[in-house]
Design goal:
The structure is a single chain. With 243 residues, this protein is of the alpha/beta class. The protein has 2 domains: 7-77 and 149-237, P-loop containing nucleotide triphosphate hydrolases (Rossmann fold, 3-Layer(aba) Sandwich); 88-147. It has 8 helices and 9 strands. It is globular and about 45 Å long. It starts with 6 loop residues before the first strand and ends in a 7-residue tail after the last helix. 37% of the residues are buried. The structure holds adenosine-5'-triphosphate. Adenosine-5'-triphosphate is lined by residues 16, 19, 25, 27, 47-53. This is ATP-binding cassette domain-containing protein. InterPro entries: AAA+_ATPase, ABC_transporter-like_ATP-bd, ABC_transporter-like_CS, ABC_transporter_ATP-bind, P-loop_NTPase. Keywords: ATP-binding, Nucleotide-binding, Transport.
Amino acid sequence: MAAMTSISLTIADKRYPSVGGAPAREIFHDFRLDVAAHEFVVLLGASGLGKTTLLNIVAGLDTAFRGDVNFGSPSPRIAYAFQSPRLLPWRTVLENVVLPLPSGPAAREGGLAMLHEVGLADLADAYPERLSLGQQRRVALARAFVIGPDVLLMDEPFVSLDEASATRLRLLLRSLLLKRAATVLFVTHDGNEAAALASRIVLLEGAPARVALDVVDDLTPQDRASTARVEAFRRRVGLSVAD
Ligand SMILES: Nc1ncnc2c1ncn2[C@@H]1O[C@H](COP(=O)(O)OP(=O)(O)OP(=O)(O)O)[C@@H](O)[C@H]1O
């Protein structure tokens, strides 16, 4: 039975000190975000607002802030898919996927099963340099899911792909989540991507960042497959974010 993991994030204060001539910046002030178990929250907002900072705080990678992250369940498994796939070039595809697992035959089996699910079983023994960006992003997805995450953090995981490849990867992500539910925080600049994926969209604005819009995305799978319906939804709820 998978744990039901929610996320309660409070950031009383997060700032970066001044670097070079640039002034110190307060990124978050009295900020709060509550994510229910198995919600798929897309965080949307302009560049430089603090979205990556927020993911790093939830991941526990950034502890230089005043505030608190609470998961509502003990020791949740957290997977983080970064903006670039970050595969180790000297390891094979399979070796990259099983990195987060204790080594052994069970890891190999789990890794191969995951590669099969993302459609890359044939490339298990290849090295990352041979892979297209779309394939590398699939490997990153496999590595995120191989631990059976309770919390999945994703920072623009499908950026720089052509639209057809990005659409395929979004469908793949949704089907992976149908098999093993996770609580998801997904960052993007792209309003259509947000509408196509989310169960809830949170738009951030300003400095320090505040929640400018927080809407439920109840599109059906059929709606999500239609660019026109996704765009209509985005306009209806007032999401008009430029990239
Ligand atoms: N270590 C750091 N030191 C100083 N400033 C930083 C540091 N990391 C990030 N910043 C600044 O803090 C702000 C928020 O950065 P962050 O990467 O969280 O934004 P973002 O919303 O994820 O942006 P993008 O969408 O471009 O990735 C930016 O202005 C960035 O330049």
